[in-house]
Amino acid sequence: MKTNFKHHHVFISILLTFFLFSLCLVSTSALAKDPARIIAGWVEKVRIDHQDFKVKAKLDTGAKTSSINAIDIKSFKKDGENWVKFTLIMTDTEDNQHAIKMERPRSRRTNIKNHDGNHDKRYVVDLDMCFNGHIVTTEFTLANRSEYIYDVLLGRRFLKKFAIVDPKRIFLTSDHCDE
Q1: Of 135, 124, 126, 107, which is closest to residue 46 (Cα–Cα)?
Q2: What is residue 70's three-state secondary structure?
Q3: What is the pTM of this model?
Q4: Which residues have a Cβ under 8 Å from the Cβ of 8 and sit 6 or more positions away?
């Protein structure tokens, strides 16, 4: 009787080991389908559109779309396409202010719900940004963010591709970019 119990115990051990190994394979393959994202703080340093200065960006899981501080926003047609001209107002990490005039194709228009419950219609453009050592292109709504602390807000559409936010930390990513 002891021999059967011993064999039964070995069989259960082998079965349990196989089950745990299979579970590891399943979870590893599930992670492989998820894009590689880094852990970032709730504030990080980024560079916008190949500029030679860095700005602080707030990583905001409560915002769907990223936003950037822009003024003098005007829509126009160029070769039959919808374009937007605007001026980015950026305060760098040394507290110097920069005004960058730009023109970009308009990706779309979107409704943004304000804190007071009203909706704003905003233009959306694609901009290059240096984030964690890589140039990435992301959508930004153009909005006057002069009343906010951060000129750049990175929302969930950006975060789901590139970062997981640690709300206790700041400046976890590399602020250098090789171009």
Answers
A1: 135
A2: strand
A3: 0.77
A4: none
